[in-house]
Amino acid sequence: MRQVTPLTDGWILHHPEGTGQALPASVPGCVHTDLLAAGLIPDPFLGRDETEVAWVGRRTWTYERDLPAGGSAHERTDLVFDGLDTVAEILLDGRPLGRVRNMHRSYRFDVTGLSGRLTVRFASAYDEAEAVRAAVGDRPGAYPEPYQYVRKMACSFGWDWGPTLVTAGIWRPVRLEHWSTARIARVRPLVTVADGAGVVELAVDVERTEGGAPLDVEASVGGVRARARFEETAGTVRLRVPDVRLWWPRGYGEQPLYDVELTLFDGEGAVDSWRRRTGFRTVELDTSPDAHGTGFTLVVNGERLFARGVNWIPDDAFPSRITRDRYRRRLEQAAAAGVDLVRVWGGGIYESEDFYDACDELGLLVWQDFPFACAAYPEEQPLRGEVEAEARENVVRLMPHPSLVLWNGNNENQWGFRDWGWEPALAGDSWGEGYYLGLLPRVVAESDPTRPYTAGSPWSGSWLRHPNDPAHGTHHSWEVWNRRDYADYRLDVPRFVAEFGWQAPPAYATLRRALPGEELAADSPGVLHHQKAADGNGKLERGLARHFAVPEGDFDRWHYLTQLNQVRAVAAGIEHWRSHWPVCAGSVVWQLNDCWPVTSWSAIDGDGREKPLYHELRRLYADRLLTVRTDGDGDASAGRGGGRRLVVAAVNQAAEEWRTVLRLRRTAVDGRVLAVAEPRCAADARTVALVEVPAELVPVGPEEFLVADAQDPAGGEPLRALHFPAADRDIPYPRPEFEVALAPEGVTVTARTLVRDLLLQADRLDPEASADWGPVTLLPGERVTIGVRGWQTPDPKAARSALYCVEPAG
């Protein structure tokens, strides 16, 4: 059988500049993390020290260790790198074994009978990118860094939420593989469901040491076995598993997983094996035209879904630091927030098996971008061959995972070509269209025909329409945030919102750790350095000013209100789009996570702390959601009898019907109940029920609002929707009054007045503390108990100091 020798220990890293200094190196790892461990660079995540380490990405770096002899027990020894970042020459005792130039591929070298000093010499990714640019010509991009000229994680060159930390190193495992006679070189598993049975078709490629006798392959799954004979180096084994249990996304059913085992035999016994887990399910993408345009609806096992999604970026600027446990923790956070789809964004990487394993187990659907984002990508060599090789390898690598349901060609590049001035600048030069409409769909069709492919996001399906047309295909909503108020999310109903979001700073404790010794202010040097979006703080302030009086010189108030505005913005979008199911079939929030401590669109910050948005997602993505929307023409805020209708939408994504009585109250901000109605509401499974608000319940003027309450038959807290017809700055709120008391493992707050969007910032009590609630609005006499974990010294005065709420203007 094949024998594996990990090559993890014994590596050294040679410091450049002719110093001759050799450092211990961690493999997997990268140059930055080795320099950090040696104390030779400051932590670039802290203060403004990112700028102090910019030189690292512009140097040549060399890793070395001894390569042991393979011995005589096997005919062949291969040196296998699962990932090299990015441009490197591999040498043994000074003799070249090969050159590589792609972070997204693995590499294998025959070192049979060889031993000696193994050297991996990394060139600067900048040097490679500039050499390719000189050869193929300039191409436009959203950022000035040359990320489109090298097959490397694009966001390592910086993004509007990420630092510029251009890495190099052996970022995935490296090993020696010893084998004889033959080895399993590739297995392409086609997993389908037919007539209640699971079908696994394993296309197997074999590498031999030399021509010889036929080989036998035996496969098993779900108690079923099959055997085939290979006369050459490729063949197929097919298994049919009767009465298979289907894999479902979370919220729709269970996630049974089956072990698939494959063993290769020669005449004397087993010589190699291959094992993976898979799940049985069907997946389709319905893009049929209809009265509203062109749909974009995922269909799993025949069930049409509203995708409750988040965008995923690399969880660390140094991806080699992301452990299996860290992947699991972050994805468990997503699942706990009601998420059922994770989009792996195209400026990052194909993630490790640990990521997709966790998604398989948690029932999280995966939308996988190919790694292209926000730039015109040349299609000439050497890039074209690298793109095809990486695509073919990773499509096959990820095929066993039932969570993977969609391949996407790129992020925003068709949109950029049409709207960002690329088309005239390119003057006919290649820009990636051949990848997205030619090469990549061909690779998917040939290798993985069980999954749908879409050419890009956003993409309307045809050049006959604008790429970002909300009525067709996927839509990215960035006019809101960049230029418009979040109320404008309610102006249209896109078919599928693949990106939208609103910024907010990270948790207070995260900022405090990242900016040691700095007096925090919205415009302090460190806070501004950890804000990478163009005019990001200006957009935060302008977005805030539309709804609140912007606090001057009060960082704590600014911090609370900007986090609250993020909650309000995302809620405005998701509530509106979910209420328009099935016309709109998904929302994918930008973004779930961060790769360092930064002001960004994330729900979980760079230290793993859950921002208020995270807790709001638990409400927004629950199976049942209550919301108030305005239908028709005219202006509902003008008063009763206007041209528009106020409607309560009961969104039911559960498998059971939802029958309830709505309790509607027109209420004054001083606590008086002005009118009450209790209409019945019935929403069938996976549907939305609409109940028009009676005219006498419609709020009039800024001093009134609507409260809609309903019971969730699944139990838990009652569902509530609030409708305020005016901006907070125009509402005559009373001065908030509430009582605070300690409760077992938490804090109880009792309101004496209307208390709008009460938030406990638990990390202000203790950096390790966290709360289980986000912003909550209490009517007079109501109370809430907020669970707090990790608070070592509970104290009611401290709790009160960490509580924030909306206060009257002025």
Key words describing this protein structure:
single chain; 810 residues; alpha+beta; six-stranded antiparallel beta sheet; six-stranded parallel beta sheet; 15 helices; globular
Structure, explained:
The protein has 810 residues and is an alpha+beta fold. It is 19% helix and 31% strand. It has 15 helices and 46 strands. The strands form 13 sheets. The chain has a 6-stranded antiparallel β-sheet with strand order 3-2-4-9-6-7, with helices on one face. It has a 6-stranded parallel β-sheet with strand order 27-26-25-24-23-30. It has a 4-stranded antiparallel β-sheet with strand order 1-10-5-8, with no helix packed on it. The termini are far apart. The model is unreliable at 633-642 (pLDDT under 50).
